[in-house]
Design goal:
Elements: H1 8-50, E1 54-55, E2 74-81, E3 87-93, E4 99-109, E5 114-123, E6 143-150, H2 155-158, E7 170-171, H3 176-183, E8 191-196, H4 215-258
Parallel strand pairs: 1-2, 3-7, 5-8
Antiparallel strand pairs: 2-4, 2-6, 3-4, 4-5, 6-8
Helix pairs in contact: 1-4
Amino acid sequence: MYRFLLSRQWVILTLVAVLLIPTMIQLGFWQMHRYEERTARNDLVARALEASPVPVESLTTPGKKITTRERYRTVTAKGRFDTDREVVVRRRTDGDDNIGYHVLTPFVLDDGKIMLVNRGWIPADGPSQTEFPEIPAPPRGEITVTGRLMPDETTEASGIKDLEGLPDRQIMLISSEQQAERLDARVLGGYVVLKTPEPQGKTPEPIGKPGNENAALNFAYAIQWWLFAAAVPVGWWFLVRRERRERETAEETEPAQAEPAAV
């Protein structure tokens, strides 16, 4: 009755079905793992953003690597901006994907150390982007700033290549180590995305806080893969039953067609 399952076509179809089931189950577990990772990151970011501000030097020192738990923490610092030695970070976009720069300004603390401050986004002056752009100045004199602590940028994490031979005072990645060499000073590890004081006229454009990753989508994908895995044997059995019915129907009609016509 089911000898057709030994045919080449059905052997291949059965093997494909057998391989698909564990593959889909594994893909479901992978999506669930992604869901758990994103959920954990969202919780970590939310806790960091909700934490009370702390002095920047309580979390970072010259040469220190910012950890995952320290990332996005709100920090405060007292000092003054050194606009004479600020640089711009190339190929950065705003919320509408317009190309421009991030403005990176050294902030000299009371004890002489330097904290790198990303003051926000400005548009590029022209297609060449070879000249240093005009940048609105920050408040002068000694002030207190607050911002979100961030780790140094790397090519591995950002996908941005650290190119050489750039125009004067332009960089590709924010690296406290590289800036310490350029400034010949003690630079705190990581950098700070400025929150306050807000710029006059909203320029440079402030960088918004990080949003939640869509973890629910990964959860839905996991359920979807597992439903697909459950549907494979059901679909295989449906095809087998249909093949069997078609063969039985063909066998029943063949004798009738073979009988000679009555004279």
